[in-house]
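Is this the right way to post structure tokens for a design question? Let me know if I should format differently. Anyway, here goes:
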């Protein structure tokens, strides 16, 4: 592990009790991108916002600029475009597909809305990140089940208590809090750490 992980535990000592699971989650994220996979994210409410936030940190520069290489820039006829683009790590927030979500929730079983997207989108080397402070949100649990059915790994980020997510996910980061807002306060530094670590692996300063 690198300085980002060490700094995370220094700033948030309470996270040391789930430190090994954070490492395992990073290893799955690295495995996903090493094999040209993509990240799928789901969650409700504040967890939906966390999905969008994490995707934003992966799809563009987070702590680094990530400019295109000279070879990549030469593929463009307009230097304005090639000079303004950044390299990204493929990631999709399943919570932002409003047309699909409202159609599915109107026509089908609403609690399967994330599972439907996972089942349709997941490829062999993809990874699901499932955020649920309770760990028992049905639509998130069903998404994990769909990931398993498609043969992809899943990381759940929940509160401290054992839950349906912790039972089903490949790795569960059980944050050491039980109140929703306190769990949310620890969720952001964890995925910021993961985003910084994976960025270090693939991009120069």
């Amino acid at each position: 592990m690198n300085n980002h992980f060490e700094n995370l535990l220094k700033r948030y000592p309470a996270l040391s009790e789930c430190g090994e699971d954070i490492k395992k989650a990073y290893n799955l994220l690295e495995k996903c991108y090493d094999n040209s996979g993509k990240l799928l994210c789901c969650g409700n409410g504040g967890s939906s916002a966390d999905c969008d936030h994490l995707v934003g940190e992966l799809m563009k520069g987070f702590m680094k600029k990530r400019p295109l290489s000279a070879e990549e820039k030469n593929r463009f006829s307009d230097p304005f475009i090639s000079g303004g683009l950044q390299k990204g790590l493929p990631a999709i927030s399943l919570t932002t597909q409003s047309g699909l979500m409202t159609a599915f929730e109107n026509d089908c079983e609403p609690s399967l809305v994330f599972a439907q997207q996972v089942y349709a989108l997941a490829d062999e080397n993809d990874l699901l990140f499932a955020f649920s402070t309770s760990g028992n949100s049905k639509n998130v649990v069903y998404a994990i089940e769909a990931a398993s059915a498609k043969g992809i790994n899943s990381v759940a980020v929940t509160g401290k208590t054992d839950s349906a997510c912790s039972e089903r996910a490949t790795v569960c980061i059980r944050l050491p809090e039980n109140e929703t807002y306190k769990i949310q306060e620890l969720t952001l530094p964890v995925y910021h750490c993961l985003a910084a670590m994976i960025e270090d692996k693939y991009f120069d300063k």
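Format looks fine. Someone answered above. Worth noting: The mean pLDDT is 97. Strands lie at 39-42, 91-93, 127-131, 153-158, 171-174.
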